[in-house]
Design brief:
6-stranded parallel sheet; single chain; alpha/beta; Histone, subunit A; 51% helix; 6 strands; Rossmann fold
Length: 310
């Protein structure tokens, strides 16, 4: 039985995942769309070295920030990891991450055409000449659903969505509609939830801890390697604001405020998405410790719990 542990950012999935993986003799596959990038550890809350040693993890710090990744590419990697993990006689535990990444694990996307390099080159030239705003406006016109769900004007996702639309005449969102999504029989999807204000407080505290842990120094190191805001990996909440700050275009206080605000908005969008998934077994992380949550999940897997809330 595969398990997907989901929930909004900063809800507390990491501690539960480590306990659950050890109990299930499982290996963790991160379904986060940014933890897969190298060098971006503090800003993406990548598991610590101790946590990585405690339980085998996959999809962590394996892709160069200059390389474009996608949910489809992640799916291909994940299927290979699943096969490898099964050969080792262990269980698979997916943890958190991008809603699109989770969606493709729960139920694979319809066939989406490969990237058309001519379309991409044309749009990249337009961005150089006019900025990203005209393309984002176009996406809002042809695929308002996907434009609304994105984390701001994400250049990589805007280009990909418009490329698919140009090739098919269909909105990108139509290839991953959630109307009939249901997990396979061998997958349990468990979600952690908290009081909304408690979650927002945890997000604010996480951002404060990022800076205490040396987030600005991490960004300086990445920029020192020659990467820029144009690289796909750095087109991410936190890194975008930090780079603008380091370019003396934003005050430190405003940078911190913007990161907190945008992260809270991201969590809100995640919660909106999760409401579509009536198959998730939710656990209240305010009322249950990580150990208690783990026990509840194990009880459900053993057939000792009813459907719905665990």
């Amino acid at each position: 039985m595969k398990v997907l542990l989901t929930g909004p950012t900063a809800v507390g999935k990491t501690e539960v995942s480590l306990l659950l993986a050890e109990t299930l003799n499982a290996e963790i596959i991160s379904s986060d769309s940014r933890q897969c990038y190298k060098y971006m550890n503090i800003g993406t809350a990548t598991p610590t070295d101790n946590e990585l040693q405690q339980v085998p993890h996959h999809n962590i710090s394996i892709i160069d920030p200059a390389v474009k990744d996608s949910a489809a590419k992640f799916y291909d990697r994940a299927m290979q990891w699943e096969r490898d993990i099964a050969e080792r006689g262990r269980q698979v535990l997916y943890v958190g991450g991008s809603t699109l990444h989770q969606r493709c694990i729960i139920q694979p996307f319809d066939d989406i055409p490969d990237a058309n390099e001519a379309n991409i080159a044309e749009m990249e030239q337009q961005i150089e000449a006019e900025g990203i705003e005209p393309l984002f406006k176009k996406l809002q016109d042809v695929d308002p659903e996907y434009a609304t769900e994105m984390d701001g004007m994400n250049t990589q996702r805007i280009i990909r969505a418009l490329d698919v639309w140009k090739q098919t005449g269909q909105p990108f969102s139509s290839f991953h509609t959630d109307d009939e999504v249901s997990p396979p029989d061998n997958m349990l999807v468990v979600g952690l939830q908290r009081n909304r204000q408690t979650l927002y407080d945890r997000i604010n505290n996480r951002v404060d801890r990022m800076f205490e842990a040396g987030f600005i120094e991490e960004v300086k190191t990445i920029l020192g390697k020659g990467y820029t805001l144009e690289d796909p990996g750095l087109n991410t909440v936190g890194y975008k604001q930090a780079i603008v700050f380091l370019n003396n275009e934003l005050s430190r206080d405003q940078m911190v405020k913007d990161i907190k605000t945008k992260t809270r908005r991201y969590a809100k969008r995640q919660l909106t998405w999760f409401r579509r998934w009536d198959f998730v077994r939710w656990v209240d992380a305010d009322k249950n410790s990580p150990e208690e949550i783990t026990k509840k999940i194990l009880a459900y897997l053993a057939g000792k719990s009813n459907k719905g809330y665990l």
